[in-house]
Every structure is written in C-alpha cells, then in structure tokens.
Amino acid sequence: MKLVVVSAGLSVPSSTRLLADRLAAATVGRTSAEVQVVELRDLAVEIAHNFTNGFPGKALSAAQRAVTDADGLIVVTPVFSASYSGLFKSFFDVLEKDALEGKPVLVAATGGTARHSLVLDHALRPLFSYLRAVVVPTGVYAASEDWGAEGLEGRIDRAAGELAALMTGLTATRPTPKADAFEVVPFADQLAALAPTSPSGV
C-alpha cells in the first residue's frame, strides 16, 4: 500500500511540510503504508516548462506517476490570497484528467491566521471533488497559533483515521444494533392502531 504526500511549502523548514509529516505519520500508524513525499518547491521549474512545451521533465513525470499510482493522498498547501497556492494548483493542472478518480484524498492547509480556515471547504474540497477524488470528511487547517495548542493533534488523528479507513476498505465506523434491540411493527399495523374506534353499539 502506498501513501503519497504532496507538500506545496516554499520555505525550509516549512510549517506546510511539518503538517504533512504529522498527517502522514498518523496515517501510517493505522495502515503501515509506504510513504513518498512530493515537494512541489523542487518541481516548480519543470511544472512551468510543462505548461509551455506540453512535456513533463524527469522529476515531474516521476511525481505524476507516484500520485497516479498511490492508494491514498495527503495534500497540503499554504494559503495565498484566501486560497491554495498557484504552485499547488499548477501541479494538479498538469496531471492526467482521470489520475485522481476514486482516490482517497486528505486535504490540509497552513496559514498565519485562523480566519483562512474556510479555504478547506471553499477551495480545496471543490477542487478535488471536481477531479473526482474521494475527499475525507475531516480537513485539517493549522494557523500559526495552532502549533502546540490543544485541538490540532485531535484533528490530525481524526483525519488520518478517515483516510486510513478509505485506503484499507473499512466502512464500518459505528456499531450496528443487535437484531433483537427493537421490535419492527408493520406499517399497516401502525395505521390500524391510529384509526379511531367506533362507538359501542354502532
């Protein structure tokens, strides 16, 4: 099983890469998947050339294959102008149009303020839904004040659990009721019980 992490962080060290690594570690703990990290910063020139000449370079081609062949993806972007970065979007623009179809994807983002947390639902989730990926219910946003604060690890664990379940084919997330836990009453009997009774002697 293969988990591919796509990180669009620009600095070294990067909070975007840090969040990506934490999400990957939490997912691997549940799946024992092999992890490959794709650093988009290292592919920026080849991505630009792909737009101008239509052909991926060697490193970009390898990254495209890794994403296409992955059993699950973790994608993390810094927030720019209340959306994903241009480098992040450009990488997914140069993938084959069906590369992510049916693939489990965990979306995450980093930013300087909690005000940009809606980027997950207003930008990232629609993008990957359009690409026909299966986006896990919980996205993870980390603002500057979230590092070391209560709550971030819980969101990471929850999102990783959802991604791991999709990757391993687990669907049962809540217990099913026992067969004798309740009595099934036919609908016709329920209607009959609601009908008014006739007065005595009529």
CATH topology: Rossmann fold
CATH architecture: 3-Layer(aba) Sandwich
Percent of residues in β-strands: 15-25%
Structure annotation, total helices = 7
Low-pLDDT runs of 5+ residues are 171-182
What class do helices, strands and sheet pairing give? Answer: alpha/beta
Strand count, sense and barrel status of the largest sheet are: 7 strands, mixed
CATH class: Alpha Beta
Helix content: 40-55%
Key features of this structure:
globular, 7-stranded mixed beta sheet, alpha/beta, 202 residues, 7 helices, Rossmann fold, 7 strands
Description:
With 202 residues, the chain is of the alpha/beta class. The chain has one domain: Rossmann fold (3-Layer(aba) Sandwich), CATH 3.40.50. The protein is built from 7 helices and 7 strands; from the N terminus they run βαβααββαβαββαα. It has helices spanning 15-31, 44-53, 58-69, 86-93, 119-130, 152-168, 187-194; strands spanning 2-7, 34-39, 72-80, 83-84, 104-111, 134-135, 140-143. Strand 5, helix 5 (119-130) and strand 6 form a beta-alpha-beta unit. The relative contact order is 0.15. Mean pLDDT is 88; it is low at 171-182.
Sum this structure up briefly:
The protein is built from 7 helices and 7 strands. It has helices at 15-31, 44-53, 58-69, 86-93, 119-130, 152-168, 187-194; strands at 2-7, 34-39, 72-80, 83-84, 104-111, 134-135, 140-143. The protein starts with a strand and ends in an 8-residue tail after the last helix.
